[in-house]
Amino acid sequence: MYKEYKPNMQPFKTPMPSQEPDVRNKNFKEVALGYTEEMAINEAKRCLGCPTKPCVAHCPVSINIPDFIHEVALGNFEKAYEIISESSSLPAVCGRVCPQENQCEGKCTRGIGIDKATGKKKEPVAIGRLERFVADYHNAHAHETNVEIKKNGHKVAIIGSGPSGLTCAGDLAKKGYDVTIFEALHLAGGVLVYGIPEFRLPKSIVQKEADGLTKLGVKVVTNMVIGKVLSIDELIDEYGFEAIFIGSGAGLPRFMGIKGENLKGVYSANEYLTRTNLMKAYLENSDTPIEKAKRVAVVGGGNVAMDAARCALRLGAEKVYIVYRRSLEELPARKEEVEHAMEEGIEFKLLNNPVEIIEDPETHLVSKLKIEKMELGEPDASGRRRPIGTNEFDYLDVDCIIISIGTSPNPLIKQTTKGLETNNHGCILTRNEFGLTSRDHVYAGGDAVTGAATVILAMGAGKQAAKAIDEELSK
User: Fold this and answer.
1) What is the mean pLDDT of residues 32-47?
2) Mean pLDDT over residues 59-78, rounded?
3) Other C-beta atoms within 10 Å of 373: how many?
4) With contact defined as beta carbons under 8 Å apart, do 167 and 256 qualify?
């Protein structure tokens, strides 16, 4: 235990200030408002500084969590930022969107046991909230400094500017590599800009992180579709890149294959969120059209489904449903996101599975969603109980349906790169934990390898690949 201060033995987290539900569900401003300095110090003092550091072992990028929190408790916020930055390139992002409850916070010793006074389960230290506070404090108070890095003469190409690509680029740039990121869209950030809504992750934060890389000397080439404009082989043979990292994500949406999915008013969550977030269709003067529906059904139970449902509400929908075929216990979305969605008035139609989208015979638009009531059987391969149809049906009156049942990698790079092996889902196969693919000098990580996963896992993959590329090229 640290001795510089008296530990705070409060069994529950310091509450996070946030917009009221009836206010925030009508705007795209950030929901959580962040800790004050006093709140952050108070929460940091809940950390016991465990010598075994179980939280660190379950952080995909191995941030020295007890040490940075210790510095927060002492009011040394910039020192805390330095500690985080040794391991993470995107602390302001991770502090907002990472599933800490399943990773670092899930192993925090302060979250073990029941509080006798209330009978409630004790809560872990709010590691994510503290990481966000430290990053925001640094961004608000840090002075611009010129970073001088000695170049080592080696060139590396990064395909995709999502969390894995940004992390890999940052780690290599700090070591002196000449790094170029090739991004298919017109802005850097990948899923951080097209997938995650402004109210969860302000795009100014993503831009600031990307700007930090350019200050390290990283070149960012936008509107460049690798596999279409240039191939991986051309990057190597004609442009002289000695290693490639593929961090192109998993942006190809999946559909259910049910009748009516091709009707007007049916979106993939990917399209709906891209129009809303990247193209800012929620603004009055936006040039990007989007369905301003009144009654919306979102099919799925992950974080993307929560994002789509909450966006629909903010775009003016009077009623928004989450339709999910399992129960609340099996819902894969973050607990915080589910709670926020419920607080904002979104209705959860659990143990229901869509079987048909009904067309209005006069307008030829979506008019109803036919759903089958389900019950849970034995666990399947995912470990969750298998949903079984009951042959009982109901109908939801809706004019817009958003399908959010997962994504897979775009096959473009696979189709244009000889010898690059993928699995049955289109995910790139790697030979080891460092992301080396079936092609020498070509590495991959993040959702392009795992399928849709978390920001922090993608960052961990980018970090591992950067280490391997450095070891290969510095021999």
Assistant:
1) 97
2) 95
3) 15
4) no
CATH fold of 255-403: FAD/NAD(P)-binding domain (3.50.50)
Q: Greatest CA separation found in the chain?
A: 74
Concatenated DSSP letters of 330-354: G--S-HHHHHHHHHTTPEEEESEEE
DSSP letter for each residue of 9-41: --SSPPPPPB--HHHHTT--S-SB----HHHHH
Using CA atoms, how far apart are residues 473 and 152, in angstroms rounded to an integer?
Answer: 10
User: Helix 163-174 and helix 203-215: axis angle, to 10°?
Assistant: 30
- Is the Cβ–Cβ distance between 427 and 413 less than 8 Å? no
Q: Number of H helices and number of E strands within the chain? A: 17, 15
Nearest in space to 298 (alpha carbons), one of 257, 358, 355, 349: 349
pTM of the model: 0.92
The single residue listed with the structure tokens 């961004």 is 139
Judge whether 155 and 173 are in contact, CB under 8 Å: no
Q: In one letter, which amino acid is 182?
A: F
Give the rounded percent of residues in the chain with a pLDDT score beyond 70.
99
pLDDT class of 475 with cuts at 50, 70, 90: confident
Q: Classify domain 31-141 by CATH architecture.
A: Orthogonal Bundle (1.10)
Confidence of residue 381 (pLDDT cuts 50, 70, 90): confident
- Reduce the DSSP state of residue 105 to 3 states and report it: helix
Locate CATH 1.10.1060.10 in the chain.
31-141
CATH of 155-251+408-473, picked from 3.30.70.890, 3.40.50.1580, 3.50.50.60, 3.30.70.330, is 3.50.50.60
Best CA proximity match to 293, nearest among 272, 279, 323: 272
Cα-based distances in Å from 84 to 76, 169, 202, 252, 290: 13, 17, 20, 33, 39
* Distance set, CA 425 to CA 163, 291, 449 (Å): 21, 30, 10
The CATH 3.50.50.60 portion of the chain extends over 155-251+408-473, 255-403
pLDDT digits (tens, 9 = 90+) for 152-165: 999 999 999 999 99
